Amino acid sequence: MDIKEAKDQKSKVKGSIDNRIGEVIKAGSAELTAQCYKLDEAPPLGCLVKTQGKPGDIYGVVYDVETQSLEPGRRVVARGEKLESKEEVFATNPQLSRLLATDFKVLVVGQAEGKSWHYYLPPRSASIHSFVYACRPEEVRGFTQSLDFLSLLVNARILVPVDEVVGSCLRYASLTHTDPHEFLIKAGKELARLLSNDINRLNSLLKRLR
Amino acid sequence: MSLDLSKIIGQIVDLAANIKQKETQRHSRIEFALRTLESAAADVNALQQRVESSKTTWLVAGPKENINLRQSAKDCYPDYLAVASDGSHIDVDRHQSAHCFLINIGMAQLQYGLSPDAELFSFPQLYFKDDDVVITSVDGRKFPIEGQLLGIKRSIEECRMLIERLEKLESPLPVITLLDGSLILWSLTEQVYPDFVVHELLVGGFLKHLDELRRLGRKRLLGLASYISFPRSTDVVNLLRLALCPHKEVDCDRYCSGKFSNRECEKVGGLLDRELFSQLLAPGERSALFSSRSSVIKKYYGANEINFFYIRLDREVARVEIPLWIAENETLIELIHSAILDQCRRGLDYPIALSEAHEQAVVNVADRQQFWNLVEQVLGEGGISVNISAKSESKRARWI
User: Fold this and answer.
1) Which chain A residues are closer than 8 Å to B119 by Cβ?
2) B67 occurs within a structural domain
């Protein structure tokens, strides 16, 4: 499926504003950080997201989600000792929703150009405050038809265990394919090629695809 | 070289020992003050008359309820709005090339109950035009706004922003509006400021805004109060001095001129109102209402005369100041009393709305430096020569 086909399908489903999930607050060539518009409403680990780039949209995989104080100097303290639920904590302290923020980090794995995708780092990074969208299933299916993006993912140096991210991403992407099992077998073969010199890691990763 | 703490530690140990030594003595003074308060409360009308006829060298509270009152709070409205404003500023710096100052007003609007919500915002405003940075009299005399006067200007802005916010409120819920610090701008008359300066800031500024708030209060249930944490005021202790004075008419200059330590009233000398009420009140209770008899109030405030009460919280006693039109309305006093307690329970014994307004307003040392750097940068880009003092330059360079 090429990108035009995927976009056509997307427009048939829903307008793009509905799947807008955040905004770029830190932009780099290999990764970016985005802030969610709503607390705790980050996309799941391994989710494929995209943001505006030049010449085309930049695609990435969510690898870390953090919810913390917006101001570095202010620590979050426990407030619910005498309350029944987390919801009650927020109702009793309505200011909390304005003082906390959920950020998610994204590993850049490709870029759209014209009707196709390139599975390497884009020449220019995303711009600060660019909107970030969760890719719709048909777009995920289109992007993961080729598994060339896995090279960037397995070689990423991040604080979160990268194999967990690879596993989450492939399991998540498999659900968008007509035959998820067949997709995972194809992905396993690609991983075997990429990690031919590290059998232990390959075995551990393959276990995460079940 | 920064402060050498190793040279001061021995003196800090001595300081601690000194405080401990005074503590026992202070405790018996507080006990005596409480007994005095109880006996004076037995005939509060006589005390009231004594206040009216007294000529004192200190500020005495005017009792408006019996002075030993311990009033517990009514239940707080489950649905209400707390709107607070606080400010900070960057003063004129004569070592900098640009003559300007900045006021940053922080506001918090917190809604409780069925539809909890919060809005937090800040309004930084730079003042640099001739009319902004000086007060000009009708005949053209000019007085610069800086230092203490800028603090007063900031208080006025805090009040003005509160009004702007309240005017936009669509919610019909009861509202408590909170300001930080005193409503009594005593420093305007303590210092020697020209009349036109006092008139502009007080009559044409602060009091005009209080009038406006009173007008807004006619349309809805609106409580206005300023909150003073850890107050150092002694108005009520000074009232006890009157009760202790052995002379038929209290006249300090006439009977006690030149006497200090051996006056009868010195038995309660050195105590603070908050020490008295921390013993009298149980947590959650408020004291009696008192009026402030400050000279600035008598001269300028009129219908906005400032009244106050103390409130005992878990960790401290705070002073709450309210204008007369609030003090005369029992429903509003109850609203303020219960809502302040509720706010303190939600904060760390300090009203959470004020705390969040402060967080929005605060300008720290790094912000200050960045502000002046930005001013220099923009002036430089505009081709304006930047002249900063040698002293300022020297402090920045920290050369050896």
Assistant:
1) 98
2) yes
A-chain CB neighbours of B110 within 8 Å are 94-95
In the numeric block, which tokens belong to residue B315?
């960790």
In a domain, B392, yes or no: no
Annotate B222-284 with DSSP letters as a single string.
EEEEEEESS----HHHHHHHHHH--SSS-BHHHHHTT--TTSGGGGGTT--HHHHHHHHPPTT
Domain locations along chain A: 3-207
Å between A94 CA and nearest CA of chain B: 5
Q: Which one of B118, B346, B352 has the shortest CB-CB distance to A98? A: B118
Q: Within a domain: residue B375?
A: no
CB contact under 8 A, B356 and A95: yes
What residues have CB less than 8 Å from A152, skipping those under 6 apart? A107, A108, A109, A110, A119, A120, A121
B168 by DSSP, 3-state: which?
helix
Query: Which of B119, B346, B359 minimises the CB distance to A93?
Result: B346
Q: Which domain holds residue B266?
A: 26-363
pLDDT tens for each residue of A8-55: 444 433 335 678 999 999 999 999 999 999 999 999 999 999 999 988
Domain count for chain B, please give it: 1
Give ipTM to 2 decimals.
0.75
Model confidence at B289, pLDDT cuts 50, 70, 90, reads: very high
Kindly list the residues of chain B whose beta carbon comes within 8 Å of any beta carbon in chain A.
Answer: 108, 110-112, 116-120, 346, 352, 356, 359
Distance CA A71, CA A76 (A): 10
A97 CB neighbours in chain B (<8 A) are 118
Going by pLDDT thresholds of 50, 70 and 90, the confidence category of residue B25 is confident
Residue B133 lies in a domain: yes
Q: Do A94 and B108 touch (CB under 8 A)?
A: no
Tokens standing for B314? 């878990």
pTM (two decimals): 0.85
User: What letter would DSSP give residue A119?
Assistant: -
